[in-house]
Amino acid sequence: MFDKIVKALLPSDHHFYDLFDESAQNIVEAGNLLKKLFLTKTATERDKIVTQISVLEHQGDSVTHRIFSELNSTFVTPFDREDIHMLTSRLDDIMDHIDGSAGRVSLYKLTKFPESMIRLTDILHLSIDEVQKAVRLLRDFEQGDQFQKVFKTVNEYENEADKIFERAIADLFEKEKNAIQVIKLKEIYQGLETATDMCEDVANVLEGIYIKHS
Amino acid sequence: MFDKIVKALLPSDHHFYDLFDESAQNIVEAGNLLKKLFLTKTATERDKIVTQISVLEHQGDSVTHRIFSELNSTFVTPFDREDIHMLTSRLDDIMDHIDGSAGRVSLYKLTKFPESMIRLTDILHLSIDEVQKAVRLLRDFEQGDQFQKVFKTVNEYENEADKIFERAIADLFEKEKNAIQVIKLKEIYQGLETATDMCEDVANVLEGIYIKHS
Amino acid sequence: MFDKIVKALLPSDHHFYDLFDESAQNIVEAGNLLKKLFLTKTATERDKIVTQISVLEHQGDSVTHRIFSELNSTFVTPFDREDIHMLTSRLDDIMDHIDGSAGRVSLYKLTKFPESMIRLTDILHLSIDEVQKAVRLLRDFEQGDQFQKVFKTVNEYENEADKIFERAIADLFEKEKNAIQVIKLKEIYQGLETATDMCEDVANVLEGIYIKHS
Hints:
mainly alpha, globular
């Protein structure tokens, strides 16, 4: 009992940072696999990648759960509880949208991917790398300049993703005459676009934390 | 004025628990009706059920509103204000998705329901029963074991619902050649699936409350 | 440094109210343009309006960003930080849905708009006016009666919008045989309907603030 109280009272900053890093690393790996998915030639190979992403998603869920447990049983946290909650949820959201998009590729038996879908995945991939950088910078609030650079880059990626997405949907409506195919592809586009939105959300949460501590 | 202050200062735990129970009971009844809806033979009978669910949804809104008013005018709450807010909102979300799914059945003039839609409603129905159990357990934080059992069951139901949903959408895309019919049914599937997600969200909020108080 | 501390400690109520007013004014202007959009005859004129709305959306983003920065660097706020955050986010959501709906009109090359789409935009327009009134009333918590009247009106508009929306979607499914056209119009209807939902959400947040201060 006494041990439990002491543990709860002591700041466990390192533990939180480690868990955030683990979450970000998971997302980076899922992003790598997603990029690979759209370039893979056979359905068998694609299904294998989809399963690998799904495993990472489960690992991500477990990290999320550990952060929430930690949050609920710790008195002293490295920054505001609600910011930790928000950051964790948004990281989890990125992973969910990667996993959801990948799952649909396999479930909807898609075999061909428009060029703009591959480009959108590239942007997402780059944005995830920036998110990982930003999460790592959390350990040291002195590095304000680097933070700002990452925020700016993530925002640029999100704007670029937006444009690719809008153009892609308009093209889809114009060129694809099979409405069911339109529905399928549109859903995957939306999953990818929302994933880049969530990267921007992570950046916004981190910016909020940064402002409070600067 | 003095009365108002005293009332605001005194813990009104019972009041909150009663309102949560009322909200859960409403959802249970809506879940029962939804299950009946998909097994009913005539459009007239279905429209009647849809109206009954809509009445429950309005009652649910009123409970939600009362909890929020109570929350905003009470100083001492049985657990964290933001947890009460979240719990109330998620319960309301379950109801909204039941009502939305039922309403669409009537509005889109659907007459036949795929087997997997009925199965999904069964899972939702079972999950809602667990949610009600969990809400009742809130009154006594000593019952940790029972809590854990309910959380586990709700999670299992959610996973099962996920699988049924994904399979159902893939089947829909393969077998239903009428794209407008695909859009209609897909929307109802999504409403049902999101309702089971919201049951899991309620369980997660309750788990958070439980961890803080254990 | 000392200046910064003093600034942070002093209540900056007026600043917050000014920013809320700026956000509401932006939304009012976007709502006016949206109404105009659906009544405009040529694609060139429509594209011009879409661009004007997009400019307002960017201005809105900048106001949102300024409120969040202010919030994160101010110790004393005119009301609860989470209420300020929620109010700001919901106002931003209204704008995002106006901008999203307008953008789709241009992107999807739509040229004809159903009567119910115009009616939905009218309701949204009226609801936004009430939201602006409610935001202005924030400066003076004594005006409880006027607050209540605005809340009631916004709720009535939201119910009316709901009915128009449901009827419109059912009609769309019945009359429009081109599934891709159904998808396009349905998306715009949803954007407009969600914008009126967000007006109601703003009213709910404001009601919460009002209850706490009455």
